[in-house]
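Continuing from yesterday's entry. The apo prediction looked reasonable, so today I'm repeating it with zinc ion included to see how the binding region is handled. Same sequence as before; SMILES copied from the compound registry.
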Amino acid sequence: MTEHGTAAEPAATAEEGEAGAMSTEIFSERLLGLLDDILAGDAPNAGRFCGYCYHPLAATRQICTYCGRPVAGRPVVSAVPRTLIEMHRRRRNREGLVVRTVAWGGLSIGVIVALLPLALWDVAWWSVIAFFGLLALFYLLSANLANSLGDSLGYAWGQSLVRREWAQLVKQRDSGA
Ligand SMILES: [Zn+2]
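Holo prediction written out below.
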């Protein structure tokens, strides 16, 4: 669950070279933020980006501050590839789907549990209070669960998509297609 949070990665993946970066987040925080903005229509897809990892680079920057590749070896690009933006959209969809599923699943169970006192016993002041109390409790529980468990699961599921599609993108890009 905390796999992506551990800093102590074995150096064994170093021999894979470019694939070594896949042990953690492939894209920089700044690029992820920009991709979110592009998807929301809040930012244009234009600028100066690393030719390998698409990290946004300042005009004078000659070495990517995220992946460390020199601009000389891999020319900068002025826009993020469309396929990358679409990949990011699918990733965010996955993450959101898991979080919403956990939240609504928890809430649905809560409704059922909250209805039990009303179903099993006569409607009385205490069973009505129990209904609303249980509902409120499960609302808080499922919101918490969505933010913790749902977030982790969604992140992992999104990462599996990104890793697979990024590998494809790199392969196609570097084969000159
Ligand atoms: Zn880079």
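Comparison notes:
- The chain has two domains: 27-80, 81-177.
- Residues 1-22 have pLDDT under 50 and may be disordered.
Will overlay with the apo model tomorrow.
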